[in-house]
Amino acid sequence: MSVPTSTIPKRAHSTSPPPPAVAAAASTTSQPAVKRAKIEGDDTPSAAQPELAAPAVIEALAAVANGEGAVKSQGEQKKEQANKGRKGKGKKNAKGKAPKPGGVEEAGAFDVVEFLGAERVKALEESERNWKKESETEWGFGANGKDIEVRIVGMNSHGDGLGLLTLSGETQPTRLISVPFALPTELVTVHVARHEPDFLMSHGDLVAIIEPSERRKATAEELAGRAEPSEELKAVQQKFGDRVQCKYFGLCSGCQYQPLSYDDQLTLKQNVVRKAFANFSLLDPSLVPAIGPTLPSPLQYGYRTKLTPHFQVPPAHGKSGGKKSQWKGKGKGVEAPQPTEPVEEKEWEVTIGFEQKGRKRILDIEECVIATKVINDAMTIEREKVKANIGNYKRGATLLLRDSLPPRPEGTVKDPSGAPSTEAHVCIQDHHATVREQVGNVEFEQIAGSFFQNNNSILPSLLSYIADAVRPVGAPPRDPNVKSYLVDAYCGSGLFAISLADQFDRIEGVEIDKQSVQWAKKNAEFNKAKGRGEIGFRAGNAEAIFDTIEFPPDQTTILIDPPRKGCDDLFLSQLLAFNPATIIYVSCNVHTQARDIGWVIRESEKKAAGTGKKGFWIESVRAADLFANTHHAEGVAVLRREL
Ligand SMILES: C[S@@+](CC[C@H](N)C(=O)[O-])C[C@H]1O[C@@H](n2cnc3c(N)ncnc32)[C@H](O)[C@@H]1O
């Protein structure tokens, strides 16, 4: 079923695959051949990442500004302006790294354009002045950064407040500053931490909220029945508002949305999706439907079924020893002992937890309020063990804590009633041990070290939403006389394929991790029942599925759930060549999702030209709140084509 690579339309970008949109603006024309992206891990940007600021784009902006060149869509123009706001330096940033697709840098460039205005960005970039240097002189940075008052004018897609900075002598803003934990409209005191070299953005630490937003005020109803907060938590609530449930709020980089009502959080995520499609899809706004309301999580605290706290060891213990900032009771600038010096254990602060916001420092976290109780109980014990034995560790490590049903005795047959399990949960810490979860009436097992969605509470409603989305809006229920097929691409241990098996006659899943595939097969076997589709899984790169499936495209749904970096170009090209009736794209990175979908829509439109039929269109997009209280949004988009 696969098409020869020579016939595959390349996604527009300069050295490598995915569109994004970015480069597409500048280059729907000549692009060099695309190297196949190598997948190394969920979050590892491969060499074949999209790049933001190709110089060609910068030049194209000048042409657009001068009224030259082809007429560009609103999306294309915005993208070019954003690139301008990021001051193109080729594919790498000042640290020599390509920006993470859909990460803070990429999205930040759009914020700069949105809040400073495209004209202002253009004027600043065209000036010969060194804005970064001047900003450093005026506001300092790091330990020498000044504390300044800033009015927060917006919020970025990563949950940080945004304010405008204006250099002395200037009448209009010269930079945007991100301020974690601050909310729009607030007047805050900010300690200036650093200034981006590549785009007009600075970063600060929140010192004090001078004029707090009304949005922080909890209603009596929200507070009813809450336990008396500890003194530590009271102090945090005093600063950030009484909805906050975590004593590490304001330091931990985890759950920025805690001060907000849950409705407010859901609306913010809807807006994050809206911005992602407006900025990254490169589609004309008329092609993006109104973003649907965010699918809520039944649990907003105590829902996370996996935590991975880490710790470091004192420098003298090993090569990968801890950082100066981990030395207890020492102020700024106090040196930690050098590796050759004897280490006094009492001076070393063993911190086990998560990274502090804006610092390369591990915070000591005793409890994580979004994790399940089983995980928190196990974390207490594991922390004590690590602290007691820190001298025995040669290097730092990451602990694994996964909430699981107890192991299933050999030979267990599935309870056909599918009743919710009443077994007491356990915490699994061995990467190679088996974890077990129940989702609706389906059970999954897999090894603890591999991927599974971390919020079990929302999975039944997410799956039911997807099951409904398989058929077009208003279409009658599934006709048993018309066969239907599903491809579950990036399938993990089979969550979607197996849960949706009632909806299809045949299903094929593909996944790169061989162990997950083995578990997917076992899970399909365990949950097998009359009336459920026949399921097969194969290990390999997602695009490999197109080599084997013989499903009729008009009766096939392809469900995609890739890692954060999005789909490889080869996969998207093969997807387009296969031309399924429906595409359901689920993603924990709405920016790369919007980028990939934009490309599919544009390319399918080209492909459909002259056939008398329409290419793919976006039927619906919304977020599902798999990560309540954090800024993360899981995007769910449904694409349909004319049959
Ligand atoms: C976000 S997870 C989704 C897993 C599954 N759909 C679920 O919900 O449990 C992404 C999965 O894609 C897999 N993966 C990463 N790159 C891949 C590739 N090139 N081809 C196939 N699978 C890949 C990862 O191993 C991971 O299991």
From TrEMBL:
Pfam family of the protein (one): tRNA_U5-meth_tr
Source organism per UniProt: Leucosporidium creatinivorum
Catalytic residue positions: C588 (nucleophile), C588
Full protein name: S-adenosyl-L-methionine-dependent methyltransferase
Record carries keyword Plastid: no
Lineage: Eukaryota, Fungi, Dikarya, Basidiomycota, Pucciniomycotina
Listed Basic residues bias regions: 84-98, 320-331
Keyword Transferase attached: yes
Stored Gene3D superfamilies: Nucleic acid-binding proteins (2.40.50.140), Vaccinia Virus protein VP39 (3.40.50.150)
Residue stretches of biased makeup (Low complexity): 22-33
MF (Gene Ontology): tRNA (uracil(54)-C5)-methyltransferase activity, S-adenosyl methionine-dependent
UniProt: S-adenosyl-L-methionine binding residues: Q453, Y490, E511, D561
Region: Disordered, residue numbers: 1-52, 68-103, 310-346, 402-422
Gene Ontology biological process terms in this record: methylation; tRNA processing
Assigned keywords, A-Z: Methyltransferase, S-adenosyl-L-methionine, Transferase
InterPro entries named among the record's database cross-references: MeTrfase_TrmA_AS (IPR030390), NA-bd_OB-fold (IPR012340), SAM-dependent_MTases_sf (IPR029063), tRNA_(uracil-5-)_MeTrfase (IPR025795), U5_MeTrfase_fam (IPR010280)
Family recorded in the similarity comment: Belongs to the class I-like SAM-binding methyltransferase superfamily. RNA M5U methyltransferase family.
